[in-house]
């Protein structure tokens, strides 16, 4: 179409892209601007970040597999036999035997009929939720769920109702008042909440779902490889294997690779292959990522000692933090925003800190002391906190060094 001579133009000479710089200024003013730091060398309990060696308490690599020789060898071999890229949608350009091997290994780990792998956990949530429900349906969403669950919920067009974090009474009340007005109902919950480290009351959620004829999708991103006698996740640890539910997760945390998955009935998986847009219209997982994840699942099966080491480290650090807090004066440790260990049942331990400025300052002091710890502030979380994630490959001296640094950094300026 020719450009009309009288095309309406704003009075100013602003470009239609100028708003972005202004938005960035606002982000800077709120001290919210972030950019990733550069790592070199293998991932692990000790990393090189921007030229400094840091003990890493900010990783999701719970089992220390992302830098494991066996995963790397499997990825290299897959590249040599299958190439670097999957070249297109698996439905259009075909899939590799490795894709199905991985899906079957996930299904076996999860004790489900089948599984499907997506290019990331985020995409698994988007595609699965939007395929399961639509505008005539209801989603009940734990208020602390990961953003990918909420993004999938919004994408689906279903009515989304938040329930209070982990609150069964609130979930039950909302099912009672809303369920009958909708065709299908889907309850969404993380199993391990990533910014607090606490667990969802899964058996009770499943009981409520049965009573109200609702589907349940659990996000096992932080549970897989970490929880359960065989490492299958919280579903196993909380005695819910075999119950009707949809289990999603990621291959990028304890499994040290990249990708996401959904495990469940053969019908569910076949349905997703035909309806999940984020699987159908995207390129299949690369051979290297697929092979690395498969090697990781074999290690999860064969090396329960890794899980045991992770839990040993978790218990040791939790105890050390509790012992230290017990020696602190009451004015530091009492009150809503005081220094306090948040209730956690996972290798994610969060030390609440009085305010955002303090947590940022503590994050910097810890870096100076050679430690990498997440400094998380509102609005990502309700209260500021240092977020510490344990790995199976942390050594006792790593924990000792962390505790020494915390002792000298808290209270700041003391
Ligand atoms: N769910 C949860 C609970 C997560 O923590 C994450 C990753 N931060 C995801 C989903 C997304 O997984 P991925 O990184 O594989 O996209």
The helix/strand series, from N terminus to C terminus, equals HEEEHHHEHEHEHEHEHEEHHHHHEEHEEH
Poorly predicted runs are none
Decide which structural class fits the backbone: alpha/beta
Q: What gross morphology would you assign?
A: globular
Spatial order of strands in the largest sheet? 1-2-3-13-14-12-11
Using only C-alpha atoms, the radius of gyration works out to 23 Å
Bound molecules: 4'-deoxy-4'-aminopyridoxal-5'-phosphate
> Per DSSP, what share of the residues sits in E-state strands of 2 or more residues?
15-25%
Q: What proportion of the residues is helical, as a percent range? A: 40-55%
Q: How many angstroms does the end-to-end distance come to?
A: 68 Å
Question: Main sheet?
Answer: 7 strands, mixed
Total helical elements: 16
Tags for this model:
414 residues, alpha/beta, seven-stranded mixed beta sheet, 16 helices, binds 4'-deoxy-4'-aminopyridoxal-5'-phosphate, Aminotrans_II_pyridoxalP_BS, PyrdxlP-dep_Trfase, 8-amino-7-ketopelargonate synthase
Please characterize this protein's 3D structure.
The chain is an alpha/beta fold and about 425 residues long. It is about 40% helix and about 15% strand. The chain has 16 helices and 14 strands. The protein has a 7-stranded mixed sheet. A 7-stranded mixed sheet has the order 4-10-9-8-7-5-6, sandwiched between helices. The longest helix has 23 residues, at about 305-325. The model has no long low-confidence stretch (mean pLDDT about 95). The structure holds 4'-deoxy-4'-aminopyridoxal-5'-phosphate (PMP). 4'-deoxy-4'-aminopyridoxal-5'-phosphate (PMP) binds near residues 120, 190, 194, 221 and 260.
